[in-house]
């Protein structure tokens, strides 16, 4: 039997490991279009803040290529799966055809970019399971001293805390409704809000962003009642 797994992040690694624990005979092939193994975006702020000194510290255990080699699991980095033929149980990856008996899709997360007029990709950053996103944001953090974060989910809050730990003068957290709305009741969210303000994070809620303007030295966020420059 051959199992193909699309995605080389934590989910793909755990699936491959569990299959290998159950059987030493199954062929396992893992594919990723990325050049490095994946990492959950919720862990990246630990490096961005300096709590963990380097990205290498995150890549231990199943986040190392040796993990796959030791378990006789085929790992294909920089190999994008471009077609899946379900009826034939075959996939095309890196221009090659692979047959499979079982297929697991573990493709990780892709950040949602809000449709805000004026966004152009310059001095704008997102986090996903792609470690390249974290590296890019880390380089940017070292260059600037203020930032605006659009979104008040767990990752947004963690990045805000990381920026304050790195000594940022101004950190704005813009939320359309409230903090951690998918996880916390209003009274608990209020406690989080108070702690963020105590630590110097400027909360703007509810935030209605009209557009973003780019200038040579930064960004201007146009709100319903004013502007922010970062």
Helix coverage percent? 25-40%
Per DSSP, what share of the residues sits in E-state strands of 2 or more residues? 25-35%
Order of helices and strands: EHEHHEEEEEHEHEHEEEE
The CATH superfamily of the largest domain turns out to be FAD/NAD(P)-binding domain
Return Rg in Å.
21 Å
CATH class of the largest domain: Alpha Beta
- Tell me about the biggest sheet? 4 strands, parallel
Low-confidence stretches: none
Give me the side-by-side strand order of the main sheet.
Answer: 3-2-1-7
Average pLDDT, rounded to a whole number, is: 93
| Level-2 CATH architecture of the largest domain | 3-Layer(bba) Sandwich
Report the total helices: 6
**CATH topology tier name of the largest domain:** FAD/NAD(P)-binding domain
End-to-end Cα distance, whole Å, is: 55 Å
**In total, how many beta strands?**
13
Question: Which structural category fits the helices and strands?
Answer: alpha/beta
**Whole-number tally of structural domains:** 2
Write a structural description.
With 230 residues, the chain is α/β, with parallel strands linked by helices. It has helices spanning 10-22, 44-49, 65-70, 131-141, 154-165, 186-198, and strands spanning 2-6, 27-31, 74-76, 81-85, 90-93, 96-99, 102-105, 146-150, 170-174, 201-204, 209-215, 218-223, 226-229. It has 6 helices and 13 strands. The strands form 4 sheets. Strands 3-2-1-7 form a 4-stranded parallel β-sheet. It has a 3-stranded antiparallel β-sheet with strand order 4-5-6, with no helix packed on it. β12 and β13 (226-229) form a beta hairpin. The model has no long low-confidence stretch (mean pLDDT 93).
